[in-house]
Amino acid sequence: MSIEDQILKRIIAIPKGELLLPTDFSELGSSEAVRLSLFRLEKEGVIRRVAQGIYVRPKVSSFIGILIPTAEEIVKAIAKRDRIKTVPTGSYALNALGLSTQVPLNLVFLTDGSPRVINIGKRKIRLKKTTPKNLLAKGQISSLAIQALKEIGNGKVKPEEENKIIGLLKEEDVKDLKHDIALAPVWIQKIMKKALEDGKN
Q: Do β-strands 19-20 and 54-56 pair in parallel, antiparallel, or remain unpaired?
């Protein structure tokens, strides 16, 4: 069985919608042979290229056609492939926490990897190099909360926004929350600590 046939057999066994990386098939042949096989399978319409070196066997909706993976899924795949850390920032962090209904067209993620811009259709994902401290947060909610509050700005957080964030932080693992509070600016620490204080009552 050729490398292409082996890759095809494995792809068909994977649920539609899952992202595929060339490294997923590295034991089947050389990197060049795997890359060429994926290129041919893309031309045949078996898989779809969503970003450089990232493919998907797309799901198809009877209402809207081919479903493209979310930006977050693509960033996770890039992080896995390149062995880097990423943290969503800005308006995307606000949207992820339910503090904004706007889905930003261009997304910014902090990373310890190489800075770059990834084009996905009309959208852009920017990986922005940052200091290690900004990537040390352990909790998913608390990490988003820190970035969302930074986006809103010191002194500009509305009471309803603060209450929403505190409510979400109560769902965070206490150990992770305490760890992440220490990483935040002092004004953000004061807000985050309220989740711990409320939890004691």
A: antiparallel
CA atoms within 13 A on the CB side of 121: 10
Tokens at residue 201, please?
């009552």
Q: What distance separates the 2 farthest-apart alpha carbons in the chain?
A: 65
Where do the domains of the chain lie? 3-66, 135-196
Q: Which residue has the tokens 């990986």?
A: 127
pTM of structure: 0.78
Tokens of 181: 């509070």
Question: Strand 65-67 vs strand 86-88: parallel, antiparallel, or unpaired?
Answer: unpaired
Q: CATH fold of 3-66, please?
A: Arc Repressor Mutant, subunit A (1.10.10)
Q: How far is CA 92 from CA 33, 34, 109, 178, in A?
A: 37, 34, 9, 24
Instruction: Give the tens place of pLDDT for each residue, 110-120.
Output: 999 999 998 88
Q: What is the pLDDT of residue 198?
A: 53
